[in-house]
Design brief:
The chain has 211 residues and is α+β, with helices and mostly antiparallel strands. 35% of the residues lie in helices and 17% in strands. It has three domains: 42 residues, no CATH class; 105 residues, no CATH class; 40 residues, no CATH class. The protein is built from nine helices and eight strands.
């Protein structure tokens, strides 16, 4: 069992640790602490993320960063700026709906992008970002879904390719061919929802075809 480290009273970024939370008090599953942010918010925070420096505020810091960065591209390329803003929110804002799949499991935005939108925008336009692409045809994707948002681990791909690269993506084999749930739905001419429902229950592609 890992040694208990008491961090009561310590400050991590903008967060001051008030006390350790008992299991019945926690919002998070892991060992967590009651903290007060400099902005006044009282929040529950993962102790390991506090000590590693991954979590530095209640979420207010990323909002300020988004407001104060150089916005040279913001108004001429609003869609790209929205991609950038959502990337940061997913990784830094515990209140963000998808935080548990990103920042909540340790995924970060590299410092060169986090501190400067222009740097991200310049990378985007030299790495395949297409302003004229239809929605869903040019999305930001991490090549290795367990690593951070950084130049060497990101690419611009269609939404279909990105969905096939999800951690929870299901695969099935039939007649010597292996495809994802989404790919099988297109091959079979069936809705994704139907194929996903049966695959999630462990049913074979043959079963799905004959159902």
């Amino acid at each position: 069992m890992a040694e208990f480290i008491d961090i009561t009273g310590q400050k991590f970024g903008r967060l001051t640790v008030i006390r350790f939370l008992e299991p019945e008090e926690r919002v998070l599953r892991r060992k967590s602490w009651l903290c007060q942010c400099d902005c006044g918010n009282i929040v529950h925070m993962d102790g390991a993320k506090l000590r590693s420096g991954h979590t530095r505020s209640c979420g207010c810091l990323c909002i300020e960063i988004a407001r104060n960065i150089n916005l040279k591209y913001k108004y001429s390329h609003k869609r790209l700026y929205a991609v950038y803003k959502h990337m940061i929110q997913r990784c830094q804002d515990p209140k963000e709906r998808e935080y548990h799949n990103y920042g909540g499991r340790g995924i970060k935005v590299c410092k060169e992008w986090l501190d400067n939108y222009d740097t991200f925008a310049e990378w985007a336009f030299t790495s395949g970002y297409d302003l004229s692409a239809k929605r869903g045809e040019c999305t930001l994707d991490r090549i290795n879904v367990d690593k951070d948002y950084e130049p060497n681990n990101c690419r611009w791909v269609s939404n279909q390719i990105q969905q096939n690269n999800r951690r929870d993506c299901m695969y099935a084999e039939y007649n010597g061919e292996v495809h994802t749930c989404m790919e099988w739905s297109k091959i079979l001419g069936m809705t994704y929802q139907k194929v996903h429902y049966h695959m999630k229950l462990g049913r074979s592609i043959e079963y799905i075809i004959n159902s």
